[in-house]
Amino acid sequence: MQLDRDASATDLGLRPTVWVDGHLYADARDARVGATDHGLVVGDGVFEALKVTPAGAFALRRHLDRLERSARAMGLPRPDRGVIATAVDAVLADRSWAHGKVRITWTGGDGPLGSQAAYGVPTLVVAATAAEVPPAGTDVVTAPWRRNEHGALTGVKSTSYGENVRGLAFAREHDCGETVFLNTAGKVCEGTGTNVFCVFGREVVTPPLASGALAGITRELLLEWADVTERDLTLEEALGADEVFLTSSLRDVQLVERWDGYAFTGLGMVTAQLAGVFAERSGADLDP
Asked: Which protein family is it in (predicted)?
């Protein structure tokens, strides 16, 4: 089984191009953020990760909408969309690769060495790097920890990402490409960076946002472009599905071949159909 991994820039013989508060750095090693930046000290920041195709960064408008929502939830000032768009253009302008990702990070800026509010001037970092196209399928494992669907950061794409780092490491330890979290009610929630979909016959089901899942951009588009039902799913129901697939900005639509070692008997035909719909629609419109 081929495992998922985002190829690093050094894996591909390149280094990220980074834009920090108006300054463009061709070599990420030259870029600097202050040691007391609140995003570093206490995770007081939000971010977005966008797929880059030969045509450019995909779905920038929707990602910036979510960045604004996350910033508002964290009590951060509203980021300047025009500045971010300029920064995205800058980091992609001279790229020598076709496929990759852009990460936009918006933090509280310089602040105290504690959880009090930052001092007031946020930090904006935009970085771009090459990445391999993910495999069509992957294996997943259920996390031994639960997502809190009632937490202060539920639905917020925060830089406080330690739980997801630990979750993805758990997947690697089990030779899987993703870990799926249940919530405190025992319902299927989401992966470390993915949304989960189950296929029962011709019915496609995904957990509602009330489960604690992040409002993924690919999830949002698939709900607009296909017939999808939002409802709670138990782990037992999910394992009894004909097909399961994941969605994310960097994976698009990806078939789950095994979950906790259980191999699904479905041929993945519905998943393949939806992957085709997503590829066609997203290929026709860079910013749907």
From this structure: Belongs to the class-IV pyridoxal-phosphate-dependent aminotransferase family.
